Amino acid sequence: MKKPIIIVEKDNNLKLLYQTILKELKLKNPFLFFECANDALNYVSKTIEKPLLIISNNNLTRMKGLDLKRKLMKCPVLSQLAIPFILVDDKPSREIINQAHKLGIDGFFDRDTSYEDLKFNFQTILARYLEQPAAQNWNSSAQPEQVFQYQ
After folding, report:
1. Which class in CATH covers the domain with range 5-146?
2. Beta carbons within 10 angstroms of residue 127's beta carbon
3. What is the structure's pLDDT at 49?
């Protein structure tokens, strides 16, 4: 069984968009959607299998994406899993970017981009964490560092 990709997103339109992109990429990993960070945290706390990564919107209702990362880091068992964490935000402030750096966020991308840019962001992020042969199938000429830059 392939490790699941956890996506925390409250916006139904974005969830559909993410599902479309992930299906186009023909991933063999299951992807699990959660509308709130607490549900994702509960799932990760109770599941046996370590997720491949967590992609979380920062602008969630009850618990922000950065707060989810903090809670994962504070729990000794979950912090040892070292689950890669990608933060998604629209027009992030300098303060959010600084907090993300301090928390050791593994990646960051702006969700307010074109469909092709969003797909490219997913390709690049997933290529970083999937096995190398799967990543090579995308034939992307861009380097991962282009997506992981803070602006």
Report:
1. alpha beta
2. 20
3. 85
